[in-house]
Design brief:
Order of helices and strands: HEEEHEHHEEHEEEHEH
Structural class: alpha/beta
Strand order of the largest sheet: 1-2-4-3-5-10-6-9
Distance between the termini: 28 Å
Number of strands: 10
Bound molecules: zinc ion
């Protein structure tokens, strides 16, 4: 008996993502409709064409008022060919099973036009997740301005997909050697989605689906959102990568399980 679900790659992704797409207008509508009744405040921090760029905030529900809340940030949808991320955040909002003493901030879709175009980049062909060091795009200038208005985060989680992956994997950034949540995330995801067994993923050494890049952002010419976060706003975080040659529902389950494991650790 293998300890992984018998879900297979679809074999569709030749040269890029060729799987199911989503109606991002409907998903964002559902996110708003779900968040409001569950006590989330919705803020518009920027625009992208016809779309508002939104952030959701949920205050802590402290069990013991003396305990400081965990400040947690989640983002998705910066790459328009990675539909499982926004869908996973919608599912998490519907589940409404957040740690009580958490102060939560969510950016559910940083590149809505990318989903209309079903491509990684924005309307101008720019990969927004490379624009965080010397930002030029209106989207990331607005996002960074919003981030700078927020307090430091105890944990960030960025939800992504990889069309070439053999299974789920993650990047951990943990420069201070805090207790890792990586193994718990992998163990939870393994129950719903295969883990990528490769020893090299995206050119970096990986073990059991975990990549620990140990990169100094200052040495990198371009910054992903995660580099900005680790440099300015957080000292622990995970980029979760669902394998987008698997069925969309499997990838949503994988990201939801990964987030829940990271939050409960
Ligand atoms: Zn991505």
């Amino acid at each position: 008996m293998r300890n992984i679900p018998r879900v297979q790659k679809l074999g569709r992704n030749h040269g890029g993502y060729r799987g199911e797409t989503i109606d991002i207008r409907a998903v964002l509508h559902d996110i708003r409709e779900t968040a409001g009744p569950h006590g989330w405040a919705i803020e518009t921090f920027g625009r992208q064409g016809e779309f508002d760029l939104i952030a959701l905030y949920r205050p802590p529900h402290p069990v013991r008022p003396a305990a400081p809340p965990a400040r947690i940030y989640l983002s998705a949808g910066i790459h328009g060919d990675e539909p499982a991320g926004p869908l996973a955040l919608l599912q998490l909002l519907r589940n409404n099973l957040w740690p009580a003493n958490a102060e939560l901030r969510l950016c559910p879709c940083l590149n809505p036009i990318g989903f209309v175009l079903n491509r990684r980049e924005n309307a101008d062909g720019v990969d927004l997740n490379r624009d965080y060091r010397h930002p030029q795009t209106a989207e990331i200038l607005a996002h960074i301005a919003w981030l700078r208005r927020q307090p430091p985060f105890d944990l960030y989680l960025c939800l992504h997909e990889d069309w070439e992956a053999q299974g789920f994997y993650l990047y951990e950034q943990n420069p201070d050697g805090q207790p890792s949540r990586a193994e718990k995330i992998i163990a939870a995801v393994k129950t719903v989605c295969p883990i990528d067994p490769s020893e090299i993923i995206e050119g970096r050494p990986a073990r059991g689906g975990i990549i620990r890049p140990n990169l100094d952002p200052q040495t990198r010419p371009q910054w992903a959102e995660a580099f900005y976060l680790i440099q300015h706003q957080a000292r622990l975080g995970y980029t979760l990568e669902a394998p987008s040659d698997f069925p969309l529902q499997t990838r949503v389950h994988a990201l939801v399980a990964g987030v829940n494991a990271a939050l409960s650790a």
